[in-house]
């Protein structure tokens, strides 16, 4: 593991929570897959998070892994170095991460270089390798080695192409589903609120007639007084 000072206080609590996310069983499956996938004489590391980190931290195994997922002659990393120099090891980790993203691993599933080289978040390293395996299984291009059940197959988009004529027909269908006024007219239809208007008109006429009768009676009364 890279040399770094001990964590204290809140920093230590955060680091402990991160380390609790590390899956020892998943570590065994990933080691078995990487050795089988690389198809090289790669030494199996002792079990444990620290040994898993040491096994991967120089970037050599990771670069061999991503190269093995491509056909011969199309490997994304042309030269793999087993240098002991820190900057070279971190450079190779960065090359792997870039190649993994180009291969199809989502950016949100990519760990940071220091997560591996300094052992800050080995659970994130496991997550990236799981995502890489899932993409490899989903591609199904003959480069993946291992049991298909080891990784989750990602759902793929089912894009369909339609001609302009099919699109026009689809628009007509949608229009009919929404309703049509073809052949419709207002003949025989009564306007909204018409009965109420008739009742009000009748009341007005009746009131006018009553007032007229009162006026006539009053005039007759004046004539005979």
TrEMBL record:
GO terms for biological process: actin filament organization; negative regulation of transcription by RNA polymerase II. Residues 24-136 form the Calponin-homology (CH) domain. Keywords: Phosphoprotein. InterPro entries: Calponin-like, Calponin_repeat, CH_dom, CH_dom_sf, SM22_calponin. GO terms for cellular component: actin cytoskeleton; nucleus; synapse. GO terms for molecular function: actin filament binding. It holds the Pfam family CH. PANTHER family: CALPONIN, TRANSGELIN-3. Belongs to the calponin family. This is Transgelin. It comes from Rhinolophus ferrumequinum (Greater horseshoe bat).
């Amino acid at each position: 593991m890279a040399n770094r000072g001990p964590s204290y206080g809140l920093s230590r609590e955060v680091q402990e929570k991160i380390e609790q996310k590390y899956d020892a069983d998943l570590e065994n499956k990933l080691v078995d897959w990487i050795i089988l996938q690389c198809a090289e004489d790669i030494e199996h590391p002792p079990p444990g998070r620290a040994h898993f980190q040491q096994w991967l931290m120089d970037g050599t195994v990771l670069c061999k892994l991503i190269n093995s997922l491509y056909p011969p002659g199309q490997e994304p990393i042309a030269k793999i170095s087993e240098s002991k120099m820190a900057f070279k090891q971190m450079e190779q980790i960065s090359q792997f991460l870039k190649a993994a993203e180009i291969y199809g691993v989502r950016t949100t599933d990519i760990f940071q270089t220091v997560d591996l080289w300094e052992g800050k978040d080995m659970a994130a390293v496991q997550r990236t390798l799981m995502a890489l395996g899932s993409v490899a299984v989903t591609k199904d291009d003959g480069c993946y080695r291992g049991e298909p059940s080891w990784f989750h197959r990602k759902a793929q988009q089912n894009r369909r192409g339609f001609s302009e004529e099919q699109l026009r027909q689809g628009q007509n269908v949608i229009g009919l589903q929404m309703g049509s006024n073809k052949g419709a007219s207002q003949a025989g239809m009564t306007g909204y609120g018409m009965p109420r208007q008739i009742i009000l008109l009748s009341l007005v006429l009746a009131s006018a007639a009553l007032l007229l009768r009162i006026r006539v009676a009053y005039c007759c009364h004046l004539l005979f007084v």
